[in-house]
Design goal:
This is DNA-binding response regulator, OmpR family, contains REC and winged-helix (WHTH) domain. GO terms for molecular function: phosphorelay response regulator activity; transcription cis-regulatory region binding. Keywords: DNA-binding, Phosphoprotein, Transcription, Transcription regulation, Two-component regulatory system. One of its GO terms (cellular component) is protein-DNA complex. By secondary structure, the chain is an alpha/beta fold. The protein folds into two domains: about 5-120, 3-Layer(aba) Sandwich (Rossmann fold); about 130-220, Orthogonal Bundle (Arc Repressor Mutant, subunit A), CATH 1.10.10.10. About 40% of the residues lie in helices and about 20% in strands. The strands form three sheets. It has a five-stranded parallel β-sheet, with helices on both faces. Strand 7 and strand 8 (about 140-145) form a beta hairpin. Helix 2 packs parallel to helix 3 (about 60-70), helix 4 (about 85-95) packs across helix 8 (about 190-200) and helix 6 packs across helix 7. The radius of gyration is 18 Å and the shape is elongated.
Length: about 220
């Protein structure tokens, strides 16, 4: 049975999530602080971790960073804060997804299943893909620019590989949500945030990108 750790300081919300996720068939544990949650995850790792950002003591952002340093467990932020800056910061810290409260448990459960499938997926062999000075190695899990390694998060890497493997083709935000995150529907800002972060890392001039371009009203494509 799939285990979920909920790190949420609001007792009412935490209990509601525990009961609702149990009804969805998960084995669920709860923690009221980041410190408690980190200790529980290290002692008995869950398959997924849900993290609130507004935690007492150690905040959610630092909790995510420490969780990510320990392992590759799928992390989903659950927060009332829906500002794009908070979403960017959480994803950059290492979160895989961001869900705004109030949480629709059926949708959350579907996202957890998609993240689990994504973590278990074994990609087919793909050669190194080259875009000028940019090299993407899906099999090696590496990105290089002018021969130097480019540090990317796990989700950024999957997004870049999806675009690279369909080079020259426009992929809509919904297509990318489906192919990279495994979601039938979702917040398209997830895609926009990751594209923006990738541009900062792979483009000489992120404000005027050469490779990762936007087709207004259509989506994104990676060009040579």
């Amino acid at each position: 049975m799939t285990g979920v750790l909920v790190i949420e300081d609001d007792d009412r919300i935490r209990l509601a999530l525990l009961l609702a996720l149990e009804d969805e068939g998960y084995t669920v544990r709860g923690a009221a602080t980041a410190e408690e949650g980190l200790r529980m995850q290290r002692q008995e790792p869950a398959d997924h971790v849900l993290v609130d950002l507004m935690l007492p003591g150690l905040d959610g952002f630092e909790c995510i960073r420490q969780l990510r340093r320990d392992d590759d467990v799928p992390i989903v932020v659950i927060s009332a804060r829906d500002d794009t800056h908070d979403i960017v910061a959480a994803l950059e810290a290492g979160a895989d997804d961001y869900v705004v409260k109030p949480v629709a448990v059926k949708e959350l459960s579907a996202r957890l299943r998609a993240l689990r499938r994504r973590a278990r997926a074994v990609p087919a062999p793909v050669p190194v893909l080259t875009f000028g000075a940019l090299e993407v190695s899906p099999d090696a899990g590496e990105v290089r620019r002018a021969g130097r390694p480019v540090p990317v998060t796990r989700t950024e890497f999957r997004l870049l590989c999806e675009l690279a493997e369909h080079a020259g083709r426009v992929l809509s935000r919904q297509q990318l949500l489906q192919r990279v995150w495994g979601y039938d529907t979702g917040d398209e800002r997830l895609v926009d945030v990751h594209v923006g972060r990738l541009r900062q890392k792979i483009e000489d001039d992120p404000g005027n990108p050469r490779h990762l371009v936007t087709l207004r009203g259509l989506g994104y494509k990676l060009t040579r």
